[in-house]
Amino acid sequence: MTNNVQKIGVIGAGTMGTCITADLLFHDVPCVLVDISEHALVKAKAEIEKVLRFAVTINKDLPKVNAADAMKKVLFTTDIREVADCSYIIENVPENWEYKESVYKQLDDICGEEVCYAANTSCLSITKLGAATKKQEQVIGVHFMNPSYLKNTVEVIKGYHTSDACVAETVNVLKLMNKEAIIVNDYPGFVSNRISHLFMNEAAFVVQDGVADAAQVDAIFKKCYGHKMGPLETADLIGLDTVVHSLDVLYQSYQDSKFRCCPLLRKMVDANLLGRKTGRGFYKYG
Ligand SMILES: NC(=O)c1ccc[n+]([C@@H]2O[C@H](COP(=O)([O-])OP(=O)(O)OC[C@H]3O[C@@H](n4cnc5c(N)ncnc54)[C@H](O)[C@@H]3O)[C@@H](O)[C@H]2O)c1
User: Fold this and answer.
1) Does the beta carbon of 21 sit less than 6 angstroms from any atom of ligand 1?
2) pTM of the entire predicted model
């Protein structure tokens, strides 16, 4: 295991891969951003350029960078083999077992023996992801918050076989990004999503049942509880498709009806009302 991170491979250029790549560039870490979709890469490039210019106005802790110079440190590609010389991988493909499993199988054939795989998953078992690879000691959960460049803390999840060296390497990578790690053990949903998805799901049931509209639900959380965001604004930010995938994983994992997905959430996903990423969810954007 190296303590000397040279280049990081980021797999998946959606909501999370995009903000994590911007975050790495803020901290002068060279990276390769891979997606199967050219369209996703074009969108990610435009978003990263925008974030590099404007995020410092929201998070004063971010280093000031010259966006054009920073963009020279990232390679955008649809060819996953370009991560062969990366010393650490952050995987951000959709919350779907088949997608993730196929990526880890490819990485096993491409990456060096020593490379750690950081699974950015909302709910999937890190132990199960580890078992899908040839090096389960080197698979760890790194649950970045969205958008990662505005959050200085990350939930890190140790799978059953995750080695101490892999934990140390991960803490080292997060330090480069000026982030603190809270290290927890592995059960689906870990701490954050096991709890927050119950909030978001029940909030959707409240709207579905006509108890209150989305703005009222969120206002109660913000004004009465003092939360920064309400559960439905949070669901829109995450992406309702990702929320539904995560609830399905939690339901299957625990076989507990408390995680059954609200039909309204599923209907909104079928209607492509995914939240911020499609311009409409519980709220309208743009
Ligand atoms: N959205 C959030 O707020 C959030 C927060 C923390 C963690 N997560 C987790 O991060 C992961 C990614 O979530 P997201 O919201 O960024 O998803 P997303 O749907 O916005 O993006 C996923 C990207 O992965 C790409 N992709 C699919 N298969 C691929 C492959 N084989 N190789 C390379 N790229 C591939 C897709 O084209 C897409 O661009 C999920 O596991 C999710 O649960 C999401």
Assistant:
1) no
2) 0.92
